[in-house]
Amino acid sequence: MTATSSPPRSGVSLNDQEAQALADTEAFFRSPEEGLLGRVSRSFFKPVEVLTERLIPDKILEAAGNGVSGVLKGIATLSDQTLNPERVLRVARKHVEVDSLEGLQEVPLEILDEVSQEILSEHQTIALLEGAGCGLGGVALLAADIPLLFGVALRSVRQVGMAYGFDPGVPGEGVIAFKIFELACGGTRDRYARLLELDTLLDELDGLEPQRRAEKAAVLASLIVTREAVKRIVSLLLGRKLLQAVPVAGAVVGAGFNYLFVQDVGLTARQIYKRRLLLNKQSGS
After folding, report:
1. H or E element at residue 90
2. What pLDDT does residue 6 have?
3. Cα(285)–Cα(194) distance, rounded to whole angstroms?
């Protein structure tokens, strides 16, 4: 089977499988059910997070939040430099002949799902090994663990996007990936509303000429981390910090948390990029 490199120019009807997949993505974001990380955090990490909130002054939490914001922006730039479109295409070529990321948009959806899952699984394994290694060092290596985890998670979002045929070099794609990361870190509350906000951003960017799109993306890049997202991330990380300080157990906690964190972020990314691909196909974008 050969995939051409030119996407459809006019809207087409989705087949039954695609229509069901689109409905499933809608249901995913409307569902109040937490991901595996959320369920584990509630039963295992939540008591520590509550203790953290009680013991650590608000000023320290605020300072930590500012630090996380800076780290996120820096890691976003660094992770972009490690993107590997050819790796995505090599995985895809196990199933179909394709010569470009754009060509992936005409590949059957079940193949794209397999490609994106393989890409995500690679990042989960990297996160697990990194978390275990840093966990062995306890608090001493936490400063290295946090940016590494962010880097793996953000890179997983970008690589998953490529698995569904989206070129990471297009202006605004980095901002979109960051908003997906933020959405994934925000839990299930108002998740569908945040998805619609992302849709609005996509519509706005897609309606611009390339130069204006690049200018708009540059402005948005400096505003993409919201206080709500940073607060949740800080809560998760500071709770982890106490547990990771426990000798030996810190490696297990670090590995498990990192694996589940990247899994949840990647699952959200898979749903969003799949939905985006199907909506584009339906509208002819």
Report:
1. helix 85-92
2. 43
3. 22
